[in-house]
Write a structure and sequence with these properties.
heterodimer; A: mainly alpha; 8 helices; B: alpha+beta; about 50% helix; rod-shaped
Chain lengths: ~160, ~220
């Protein structure tokens, strides 16, 4: 379970050391509030939610030092040349460059297994807004992967 | 269901299946092809997300600092343990020498030199002899120390009385000084075992130790 949480936190924070801090703090919080977990089968989603909130709390609390995304991506891109899965590396870098409002629902959906309704509830958005963000996130990744971008859909969410 | 709605749903969740969606895909090859593409892309996205680029690898900056700090801690701990290990035997011996001298405080107070017979008696218990020509020895006892009788002498020096313990059964690798309980001392290797010299107060014992080394040679030459 911990590797899942760490991976999830890493995609949110884009920094392994911060992700480890987040997971450690989240596990402590989870332990303290373990009585609130009514269904043991929902433990994974419950923990992922705590990790996500801890990530948001961390940034609110500490105002973490901002790191140039170009630097992060450049460092990681330099590693990709030696990796056998070069295409996946490009995709990872593209995901890493997604703005948080697109990256977060995508990670919640793909890694966390959350439904659109659950993501909407967690992010305090409408289901339509979540669908739009997920659509745009994948559309940006399509471009990175050399596919033709799908035509934008009109959903009421402003374009970025 | 319109093509726009279909593509929004597929783009947002390529794995979604609803009756309305499936119905539309049966009659719209373009949207069906779009779903195939998106599902293939989603498989790659999942694979990419499951293994972030730097998971399991050290990162620059904060993580690197942590690793350097950890490495430095390990090195310091190792050096500390090594230092304690190297110091342990002699420091223990020094403490025991000091403790022994503290048990015989009267030894410092002697004001008259000891007779040659008393000196010989003190040395005999240790199985050694010393051709004493000096009247500088103010105290001479044969003391039980570490399972052996050892000569315990107090020698008058230019810096006042100095205690000398001739430790034939204690081997030390190198000269080591110590300061404990208001005393300064040195334990130095000798031809047979070692010799401990203590004075009250601080200061260098090099001159006294050198003289004692000379005395020890005299002891060895007497056998």
């Amino acid at each position: 379970m911990r590797p899942d949480l760490l991976r999830f936190a890493h995609w949110l924070a884009r920094d392994r050391a911060i992700a480890e801090d987040i997971v450690q703090e989240a596990l402590l919080r989870a332990w303290r509030s373990r009585d609130t977990l009514k269904d043991p089968g929902a433990a994974r989603a419950w923990l992922l939610t705590i990790v996500r909130r801890e990530h948001a709390r961390l940034y609110e609390r500490k105002r973490l030092e901002l790191v140039s995304l170009d630097d992060v991506v450049e460092v990681q891109a330099s590693r990709s040349f030696s990796e056998p899965d070069g295409e996946l590396s490009a995709l990872r870098h593209a995901i890493m460059k997604l703005p948080i409002e697109y990256r977060e629902p995508l990670v919640l959906q793909v890694l966390g297994g959350f439904s659109t309704e659950e993501i909407a509830h967690e992010l305090a958005l409408s289901c339509t807004a979540v669908l739009t963000r997920l659509f745009r996130a994948r559309n940006k990744l399509r471009v990175i992967c050399g596919m033709t971008p799908a035509p934008e859909v009109a959903t009421g969410e402003s374009l970025r | 269901m319109s093509c726009e709605d279909t593509r929004l749903l597929i783009g947002a969740d390529p794995g979604a299946t609803t009756p309305a969606l499936e119905e539309h895909l049966r009659t719209c090859p373009a949207c069906a092809s779009f779903r195939d593409e998106m599902r293939a892309l989603d498989r790659d996205i999942r694979r990419a997300l499951e293994r972030p680029a730097d998971m399991g690898r050290p990162r620059a900056g904060r993580q690197a600092w942590r690793q350097w700090a950890l490495a430095a801690s390990v090195v310091l701990a190792t050096l500390a343990v090594l230092g304690l290990w190297l110091l342990r035997p002699n420091d223990t011996l020094a403490r025991e020498v000091v403790a022994h001298v503290q048990k015989e405080p009267e030894s410092w107070l002697a004001t008259q030199h000891v007779s040659a017979q008393d000196i010989e008696r003190a040395l005999r218990g240790a199985g050694i002899a010393l051709n004493v020509t000096s009247d500088r020895i103010m105290y001479a006892q044969s003391c039980w120390f570490h399972g052996h009788y050892v000569p315990h002498l107090v020698v008058q020096t230019a810096r006042g009385p100095a205690t000398v313990l001739i430790l034939r059964h204690e081997q030390v690798r190198e000269r080591r000084t110590f300061h404990e309980a208001g005393m300064s001392g040195v334990i130095a290797p000798a031809e047979h075992g070692s010799i401990a010299v203590l004075v009250r107060g601080g200061g260098s014992l090099d001159d006294i130790a050198a003289q004692m080394q000379q005395d020890m040679r005299s002891i060895a030459e007497s056998h």
